[in-house]
Specification:
The protein is of the alpha/beta class. The protein has two domains: 221 residues, 3-Layer(aba) Sandwich (Rossmann fold), CATH 3.40.50.2300; 162 residues, 3-Layer(aba) Sandwich (Rossmann fold), CATH 3.40.50.2300. Helices cover 42% and strands 21% of the residues. It has a seven-stranded mixed β-sheet with strand order 7-6-8-9-10-13-14, with helices on both faces. A five-stranded parallel β-sheet has the order 2-1-3-4-5, sandwiched between helices. The chain has a two-stranded antiparallel ribbon with strand order 11-12. The longest helix is centred in the N-terminal third of the chain and has 20 residues. The radius of gyration is 22 Å and the shape is globular.
Length: 409
C-alpha cells in the first residue's frame, strides 16, 4: 500500500521541482568553462568578466523566474582534455547551461560531451565553422559568428584586388587550419589565378612568439599578400611586430580576418607596432560603435573592471542575456525547455544589430565588421578604419547543406 502511494505521489512531487534537481528558492546554476590560463587566457579572462557583469546585473534586477543566478566557473587551461573534464564536472553539479570562452579545439572537445549529457553549451571563442555544421547537434549553440562568414566576406573583397601570389601562416590547431582553408578555398573559387607559392605555407604551435625564420623565408618568396589569419592570441601581435620590423607589409598586403579583435591585437601597445597595410575585421570593433546600447555596456564594463571590453566580454554578456530571455519564454528551469525556447530566438546585439539563433543548426546570424587596422591616438590602442558590416546570413549554408554535412560525418 505504501509503495503504491509513493508511486502515485512521485510524479506530483517531481513536478514541484525544476530540473535539474533544484527548488524554487535555489539559484539557477550557470556553468562557465573558459581559458583562464594558457595561450588563450588573453580571451578567456575578458570573456569571464563579461559573464560576471551580466550575472551581477541580472541578479540586481531580481534574477529570473524569481530565482537568482549563480555562476559555476572552471578553467580549461587552453586544453581540450581540461575543457571536456570541466564541462562534465559542471554537468554533474547541475548546471542548467554552460557558456564558455573556450577556443575551437577546446569547444570541439566539449561538443560530444554536450550531446551525450544533454547539457546545452554556448561557445564564445570557438569560431570554427564545423562546430555548428559537421559537428552540430541539439545541445551545441553559437551566438557568435563563425569563420565561414568572415572568411568568405574577406575573400569576396580580396577577389577584387590585384594580388594573386600568397603565402599563408597559422597556428597549428583547429581554428588556425580552418580559417586558412575557408578563406583560401573561397578566394581560389572566386579568382582561379590565386595561388599559394610553393613552400610558403607555414604552421606553428599555439603560443609561438618567435617568427624570425618564417618571416625571412616569406620575404624570400616575394608574395603579393600574406594571409596570417590563423595566427591568433599571443602569437598574432608577436608576428605583426616582427613582420613590421622586417618591412614585410611594405611589400605585401597583410590579411588577417580577426586582427581587429582585442584578443588578437592586445600586444600591439604602441603606434609604431601597427602597420598600415593589413585588411582585418572584428565583431566588436574599435573605436566603439556609437549607439546607446553599446555605450551603456562599454561604460558598465569599464566601471566594473577598469579596462576596455573585448569582443568576448560583449559576446559572453549578450549570451547570458539571451539565456535569461529564453528562460522567461520557457517559463521554467529545464534544459530541454531551454533548448526549445532558444531555437529561432532573436536578440539585439549592441554592435551587430538583431541576430537570430537558426533553429536547424543553432548558429546565429551574427555578422562581421571589416576594415583596415590603424592606431587610435585617443584610445591608445589598435582600431579599424573604413568600416563596413557584412551580414552573417548572406554567407551561411542552407538547412539542406547543413544536413548533407552532418550525413557525411
Amino acid at each position: 500500500m505504501k509503495r503504491a502511494l509513493v508511486a502515485l505521489m512521485l510524479p506530483l512531487l517531481l513536478s514541484l521541482f525544476d530540473a535539474p534537481g533544484a527548488s524554487a528558492a535555489d539559484p539557477i546554476l550557470i556553468g562557465d568553462v573558459s581559458s583562464m590560463s594558457g595561450p588563450f587566457a588573453v580571451a578567456g579572462v575578458p570573456g569571464r568578466q563579461g559573464m560576471i557583469l551580466a550575472v551581477e546585473e541580472i541578479n540586481q534586477q531580481g534574477g529570473v523566474l524569481g530565482r537568482p543566478l549563480k555562476l559555476l566557473a572552471r578553467d580549461d587551461k587552453s586544453s581540450p582534455e581540461e575543457g571536456a573534464k570541466a564541462f562534465r564536472e559542471l554537468a554533474a553539479e547541475g548546471a542548467l547551461v554552460v557558456i564558455g570562452t573556450a577556443p575551437s579545439h577546446v569547444s570541439a572537445a566539449i561538443n560530444p560531451n554536450a550531446r551525450e549529457l544533454k547539457v546545452p553549451f554556448f561557445t564564445i571563442l570557438g569560431y570554427s565553422r564545423f562546430l555548428t555544421e559537421d559537428a552540430g547537434h541539439r545541445y551545441f549553440f553559437r551566438l557568435i559568428t563563425n569563420d565561414r562568414i568572415f572568411g568568405h566576406a574577406l575573400a569576396d573583397h580580396l577577389a577584387k584586388q590585384p594580388h594573386t601570389k600568397y603565402c599563408t601562416i597559422g597556428n597549428d590547431f583547429a581554428y588556425g587550419r580552418d580559417i586558412t582553408k575557408v578563406l583560401m578555398t573561397r578566394l581560389k573559387e572566386l579568382k582561379p589565378s590565386v595561388e599559394v607559392l610553393p613552400g610558403c605555407e607555414f604552421w606553428v604551435p599555439p603560443g609561438t612568439t618567435d617568427f624570425t625564420p618564417i618571416i625571412t623565408a616569406i620575404l624570400a618568396k616575394r608574395p603579393q599578400a600574406v594571409m596570417f589569419g590563423g595566427v591568433v592570441a599571443v602569437s598574432s601581435p608577436a608576428f605583426v611586430k616582427q613582420a613590421k620590423s622586417f618591412g614585410l607589409f611594405n611589400a605585401a598586403l597583410g590579411v588577417h580576418p580577426s586582427l581587429g579583435m582585442s584578443a588578437n591585437n592586445i600586444g600591439l601597445t604602441r603606434k609604431d607596432d601597427v602597420p598600415d597595410n593589413i585588411l582585418t575585421g572584428s565583431d566588436y570593433p574599435y573605436p566603439p560603435i556609437d549607439n546607446a546600447a553599446n555605450k551603456a555596456f562599454f561604460e558598465a564594463y569599464r566601471k566594473r573592471w577598469n579596462q576596455f571590453p573585448f569582443e568576448m566580454s560583449m559576446n559572453a554578456y549578450t549570451n547570458m542575456k539571451l539565456v535569461v530571455q529564453a528562460l522567461k519564454k520557457a517559463g521554467k528551469v529545464d534544459r530541454e525547455a531551454l533548448v526549445d525556447a532558444l531555437e529561432g530566438m532573436s536578440i539585439e546585439h549592441p554592435t551587430l544589430g538583431t541576430i537570430t539563433i537558426r533553429p536547424f543548426d543553432h548558429q546565429s546570424t551574427a555578422g562581421w565588421w571589416i576594415g583596415h587596422l590603424v592606431w587610435d591616438d585617443t584610445l591608445k590602442k589598435p582600431a579599424m578604419k573604413d568600416l563596413r558590416y557584412e551580414h552573417g546570413d548572406r554567407y551561411l549554408p542552407s538547412k539542406q547543406d547543413v544536413e548533407k554535412m552532418r550525413t557525411k560525418k
